[in-house]
Design brief:
mainly beta, Immunoglobulin-like, 4 domains, 6-stranded antiparallel beta sheet, 5-stranded antiparallel beta sheet
């Protein structure tokens, strides 16, 4: 008992000495941004506050449980100092899965927390334990959460120094709504250029589901550069919190780059007018303007074809006769226009051989 008392006194001293320096180096979300509130209780070391809003403390700290069940942040004990719930500081836990996690479906809690005073540095910057027999580990597997009310129940175990920790005074609010957002810049983008894809999510990880050269590396928040784009593309992410997002990117033409894209008719140089689709030119050479459109001033248009007068039911030469085969039997009509030699004949006029009336 004397040894335990000595350890606790030593811990309190370490906690007071390291609290200020730890505050300067730790990364913690502000209390208003954390969804765990209340106090846990240990018969040996007293209250552990899980959110500075409990005490009105100006120092911002708190514990958060996100939509994937990941528990993170810090609690505070006036006797043993900071208690870390951050997976990055818990990788050397005594056994099992180290990262503290809540299963939002079953309400079971797993993983570990650690009193930073139990580390050799006293601030969780090292995973090495103290040399007096106390390592600060607190096992969370005895806890459950009512996922309807958010109330915790059960006990965590903190070995000889911390002992059993009662979490019945702790509550977690609703998890933040799962989010995923992706943005692409610039948009539109010049032909042959790259874009920067930036994505954010409160998930644990996201993967790229579409986009040329785009990869997330399983990160939930980051940015990446695409490959060179030569066609419109869509960039999308799918995250492990059940969300997804996408953004379409338009590739625009760049007049003067020598590549005909988008709405450009041409991009530099000249060519044969007959190559202009739908232009109706018989000859000539076009040039390309500075706005990437055809200059057809030197193009020669194809002469228009005359109509087929011998199959249009019109007396085009006013001689009282029309067409070549009005009844469509393939034989010249007896009263066919004398100027028609077939249904494809383009003119009814037959000067010098007008049929007498």
């Amino acid at each position: 008992m004397k040894k335990l008392t000595g350890i606790i006194l030593g811990i309190a001293t370490v906690a007071l000495v390291t609290a200020l320096s730890f505050e300067m180096s730790r990364t913690a979300v502000a209390g208003t941004g954390d969804n765990v509130t209340g106090y846990a209780w240990s018969d040996t070391i007293g209250w552990i506050s899980l959110n500075n809003l409990n005490t009105g403390d100006a120092t911002s700290y708190g514990v958060n449980i996100d939509s994937t069940g990941t528990i993170s942040g810090y609690g505070w004990s006036p006797n043993i100092g900071w208690v870390s719930f951050n997976a990055s500081q818990l990788s050397s836990c005594p056994s099992g899965t180290c990262a503290p996690t809540l299963n939002w479906t079953t309400g079971t809690v797993s993983g570990w927390a650690r009193a930073c005073a139990g580390t050799s540095t006293g601030n969780c910057s090292s995973s090495t334990s103290r040399t007096d027999g106390w390592d600060g580990w607190i096992q969370l597997s005895g806890l459950t959460v009512n996922t309807t009310t958010g109330d915790f129940s059960g006990y965590a175990w903190g070995s000889d120094v911390v002992g059993w920790v009662d979490f019945s005074g702790v509550n977690v609010g609703s998890p933040p709504a799962p989010t995923a957002n992706i943005t692409v810049t610039p948009n539109p983008v010049d032909y042959g250029s790259t874009v920067t894809v930036t994505w954010t999510s409160n998930a644990a990880s996201c993967t790229a589901s579409s986009g040329p050269g785009f990869s997330t590396g399983n990160a939930a928040n980051d940015s990446d550069t695409s490959s060179a784009l030569t066609a419109n593309a869509t960039f999308a992410i799918t995250c492990d919190n059940g969300t997804s997002d996408s953004q379409a990117v338009t590739v625009q033409s760049v007049c003067g780059d020598g590549v005909v894209t988008g709405g450009e008719q041409c991009d530099g140089g000249s060519g044969q007018c007959t190559a202009i689709s739908g232009g109706g030119y018989a000859s000539g050479t076009y040039t390309c303007t500075g706005s990437c459109t055809y200059n057809t001033a030197s193009c020669v248009a194809t002469p228009p074809l005359l109509g087929t007068q011998c199959d249009d039911a019109i007396d085009n030469d006013s001689d009282g006769y029309t067409d070549y085969d009005k009844n469509g039997d393939g034989v010249r009509d007896a009263d066919a226009d004398p100027g028609c030699t077939s249904t494809a004949d383009t003119s009814e006029f037959n000067i010098g051989s007008i049929r007498p009336r």
